[in-house]
């Protein structure tokens, strides 16, 4: 399957909005405990249903940032079997619906009105995804929208805006997901350092229309973007038949790099000066936690950390030395991620091989945070934006 580049609609018709059908109602349709909305600094929610995980954040605006009030994360493995059948399986769908019932209860408990609930690569690719979206709405009251890869890339980029360094003129944002990997290259040379975060937040849907467009003073320009239909789950599934651990890792890494040849910065890499890579995903944060030796994950130590290429490479070599059984019991990796960490590390190594920059910034943030920033920016409830 070739990487997706052009702008386009979701693979299947999707609802126009993920919000409840009636103003002042929760997804279940009952009366909320407390009215909330942009005018009174109320709560917002963002839900990301991916190929491997179902995750949700509930937050309120707090200055130029937001404060997380509640969260949910569960490995539902929705994409299990998708590579071979082209369809979502009954058991993965049942697991996902059960997780979404918990999400609905949390939305009800907090009386959330402003929300965006999205599904990504597994639902984009599955032939029965439209049927599954209807099943979710019927059984949970939640209306999910299947967003195109372009929108997923934009939201991942938005979430990383606060981590952009003042000296950055060329920015590469990498989001390694369960079913796909998004890369967005942004030119910030025409934006003053103090305006760069605002400029990134202002990038609208339609990234392809901005590629190679003239760069206006004070505006960020999208040099190129790509969505590679390989993530930690899909890449692992493609190479499951390779028994040797090291050989499987090498094959996965080179196979992923082959998908990057049409990405224009692959042929014309940026100079090291003024160039920043920000990586966001469970793979990146797990590698960071392993580098720090964290047996108990601490977001405050991981988010915003910078790692050199040599440090990343050492962690990956340590993973290979551990072998499958060693990774299974390593507390730094965790039981939910040990089976996916090597496919994610293969993607990460390929990207660091292509762009041999000195450091990568680690972001414990992604699609959910991008959804929240986009909603709050649209409503004008973030200070200074």
TrEMBL record:
Residues 58-376 form the Ppx/GppA phosphatase N-terminal domain. Residues 1-43 are annotated as: Disordered. InterPro entries: ATPase_NBD, GppA/Ppx_hydrolase, Ppx_GppA_N. It holds the Pfam family Ppx-GppA. GO terms for molecular function: pyrophosphatase activity. Residues 28-37 have a biased composition (Basic and acidic residues). PANTHER family: EXOPOLYPHOSPHATASE (PTHR30005), RETROGRADE REGULATION PROTEIN 2 (PTHR30005:SF0). This is Exopolyphosphatase. It comes from Pararhodobacter aggregans.
């Amino acid at each position: 399957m070739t990487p997706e580049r052009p702008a386009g609609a979701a693979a299947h018709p999707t609802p126009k909005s993920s919000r409840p059908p009636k103003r002042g109602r929760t997804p279940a349709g009952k009366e909320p405990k407390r009215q909330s909305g942009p005018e009174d600094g109320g709560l917002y929610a963002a839900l990301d249903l991916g190929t491997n995980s179902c995750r949700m954040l509930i937050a309120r605006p707090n200055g130029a940032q937001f404060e997380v009030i509640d969260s949910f994360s569960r490995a539902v493995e929705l994409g299990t079997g998708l590579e071979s059948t082209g369809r979502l399986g009954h058991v993965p769908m049942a697991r996902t619906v059960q997780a979404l019932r918990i999400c609905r209860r949390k939305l009800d408990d907090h009386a959330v009105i402003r929300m965006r609930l999205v599904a990504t690569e597994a639902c984009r690719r599955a032939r029965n995804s439209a049927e599954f979206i209807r099943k979710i709405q019927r059984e949970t009251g939640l209306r999910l929208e299947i967003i195109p890869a372009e929108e997923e890339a934009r939201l991942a980029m938005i979430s990383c805006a606060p981590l952009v360094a003042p000296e950055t003129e060329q920015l590469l944002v990498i989001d390694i997901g369960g079913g796909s990997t998004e890369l967005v290259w942004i030119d910030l040379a025409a934006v003053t350092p103090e305006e760069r975060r605002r400029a990134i937040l202002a990038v609208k849907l339609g990234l392809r229309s901005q590629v190679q467009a003239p760069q206006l003073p004070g505006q960020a320009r999208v040099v190129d973007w790509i969505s590679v239909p390989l993530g930690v789950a899909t890449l692992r599934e493609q190479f499951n038949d390779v028994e040797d651990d090291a050989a499987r890792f090498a094959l996965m890494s080179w196979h992923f790099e082959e998908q990057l040849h049409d990405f224009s910065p692959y042929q014309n890499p940026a100079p090291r000066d003024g160039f920043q890579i920000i990586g966001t995903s469970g793979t990146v944060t797990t590698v960071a936690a392993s580098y720090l030796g964290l047996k108990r994950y601490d977001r405050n130590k991981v988010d915003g950390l910078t790692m050199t290429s040599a440090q990343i490479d050492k962690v990956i070599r340590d993973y290979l030395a551990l072998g499958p059984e060693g990774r299974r019991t390593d507390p730094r990796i965790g039981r939910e991620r040990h089976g996916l960490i090597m496919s994610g590390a293969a993607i990460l190594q390929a990207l660091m091989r292509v762009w041999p920059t000195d450091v990568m910034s680690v972001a414990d943030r992604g699609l959910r945070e991008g959804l929240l920033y986009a909603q709050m920016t649209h409503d004008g409830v973030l200070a200074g934006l």
